Amino acid sequence: MKRHIEAVGALFVENGKVLAFEKGETKYPYTSHKFEFPGGKPEPGENPKQALMRELREELDMTAEVYDVFDSVTYEYPDFTVTLRVYLCRRTSGYTLREHTRVAAIASSDLRDEEWAPADSKILRKIRSHLL
Predict the structure, then answer these.
(1) How far is it, in rounded angstroms, from Cα 87 to Cα 111?
(2) CB 113 within 8 A of CB 35
(3) Structure confidence by residue, pLDDT tens digits, 28-52
(4) CA angle 58, 101, 41 (to 5 degrees)
């Protein structure tokens, strides 16, 4: 049986564009050098919003307001299954790229599934349908 991971991610929309954060090299080729919603896994005793705020501080030295869940998806990768909850967020600080190689502001009509981690496709469809 594959390992199951619970994860949280942040959706930032600024000036009508989605902030896309590109991961560097990872141990999984299907997520390396792909855009993602920054975030990670909750630690024991953390609620999802607390986890997301901690992950943003750790990965990006960023603070943010975390609002409601925008969408969630369960996706089966070759090595594990992930349930990802993506929250609407608003940055309250700048950021420093620590685990990401770049950030891009992308219009919803220009979001391309192949440029993102595979689990994000359903989320991208919802963004395109809501922000066009």
Answers:
(1) 18
(2) no
(3) 888 889 999 999 999 999 999 999 9
(4) 35
Q: Which amino acid is at 45?
A: G
Find where tokens 């560097």 sit. 24
Rounded Cα–Cα distance for residues 58 and 98 (Å): 8
Structural domains for the chain = 3-131 (3.90.79.10)
Instruction: Give the span between the Cα atoms of 104 and 42, in whole angstroms.
Output: 26
Q: d(Cα 54, Cα 116) in Å, to the nearest integer?
A: 23
Tell if the pTM clears 0.85, that is, is over it: yes
Place of tokens 């390396």: 32
